[in-house]
Amino acid sequence: MSAAPDPTTPDPTTPDSVTSDLATPDLPSPAPDGPVAPVTPEAVGEEAYAWRRMHPVTPVVRGWRVVVGVLAVAVFQLDSFVDLVVELGARAWLVGLGLLLVVGVIGFASSVLAWRMTRFAVTDEAVHLRQGVVFRQQRQARLDRLQAVDLVQPLLARLLGLAELRLDVAGGTGSSVALAFLREAEAEDLRVELLALAAGRQRPGTGPLPADAPLARTLTTGDEGAPPAVGPAGTQDRPHGGTSHGAHDGTDAPAPAVPAAAPVGVGDGRFTASPEQQVYEVPAGRVLLSVVRSSALVWPLVAVAGVTVPAVLFGEPGGFFVLFPAVFGALGFVWSRVNNGIGFRAATSPDGIRLRHGLTEQRAQTVPPGRVQAVRLTQTPLWRGPDWWRVEMNVAGYGGGGGGESTSSETVLLPVGPRDEAVTAVWLVLPDLGVADPRALLDTLLSADPTAREGAITSPRPARRLDPVAWRRRAAVVTDRALLARRGRFTRVLEVVPHERTQSLGVEQGPLQRRLGLASVVLHSTPGPVSPRVDHLAAADAAALLDELSVRARAARAGAAPEQWLRDVRTAP
Q1: Of 339, 356, 379, which one is at a domain's C-terminal end?
Q2: Which superkingdom, per the lineage (predicted)?
Q3: Looking at the predicted structure, is the pLDDT value of residue 36 above 50?
């Protein structure tokens, strides 16, 4: 099996695997050629940092779940407790109450001590966090590896006017830094500051940049003061800021323009929040109806009906106990979908993609430009009538489970929406698909017969022995900007991977595939719900696809925008 031109290493976890490494996973894209403005060095010694503490109410917000749990156990065990008091006498009751009070005081004191020992500092290069009482721990989130900034407000924190700031950075599981809890206004100001520093803006009050230093680009293409325009697919109106590569003349898909970048700073020494333009909002009624039409809810209901009929006819209710796990799982799924989908809104800004959603726990996410590694569009059979789609994404630092009907909220780009909104969601991540008519391409791949697309790579006839149901529904299309892979007959899935975000490539061939002359191409992405792969291709097609993707990925990464996305275009003198 031929592979990419450079040396490869077999993957021991598969029967036969050829891998072409394009870049170390989770590392930032290489900076483009040309001079870059120097970065202000860190202060000498960490004690010189401006260390700050969390809000004093943090121990209460963190510990309320424990208090509620203890009270719930006490209520459920009240009868046993009363019997114990009667048996041992009032003195024993007082001793037990005293011990409980001592434990509560110790727990509260430890929480306060932990709060006092937790501090954070923000510099031009990183966010530093110190915590721990007995075992000290210090973590840092480098701003040049910042993948997303989330403002999270659990129910009690929202009632108290507090918020948690979560910084997701590239670096694997456990690399994120959480600042919990801050005043809501303070957390919002800090979010704006971190995004501005990560984008390459200069801290207000430090004087102008040198004349030869890269400056923040102008993010509008119209006249100053004109309202944002909506451009066609492939134009320069990139939803999350910047310019697209290889623009085309497609006119079918709507493209929300980006508001102009906010001023770098104002007189009070603070960064100014960038304006935003809302792209879509998901109605609550659609979220509820989508849950009702979800297969994850329908199958447990069918199982309950199947057990209820024999129980009524034959008087054997024992089967209901078997269904308890499935029923509780379905209820958890329903609550998660409703809680995370209510109030879902998406907007664009120079900072990136902004997502807001949540019922009891509100979350405001900001994903900077170029941080989305892959996108997946999914349509279950019961969503086929209204033509609804769910759009999920891989972002380094978020992680999330893969496959199935995921309930993770932070990796969702669109919980449920018609095809037009699903196409717009893809546009937020990849405004230029590298074809003249991107809407026609997406419509074909989202249809019942994706193989109708001219130039699509499809599974040959021998693949029906391994996939007799959906082998005719597998197709892959390679454009100048991305790979689009479609699969599934009943549940339709379309995966989109930008070339510059491909981590590595591999070809897998199991014993049955080898016997039939088939192979699968795997695109390794960051952890998340999207696991892109193209299964059951002819072996020659798989080798050719591997080579083509390898070449395109290297070229795309060489021309990718820098991590400080507001420094890649100079302003005219």
Answers
A1: 339
A2: Bacteria
A3: no
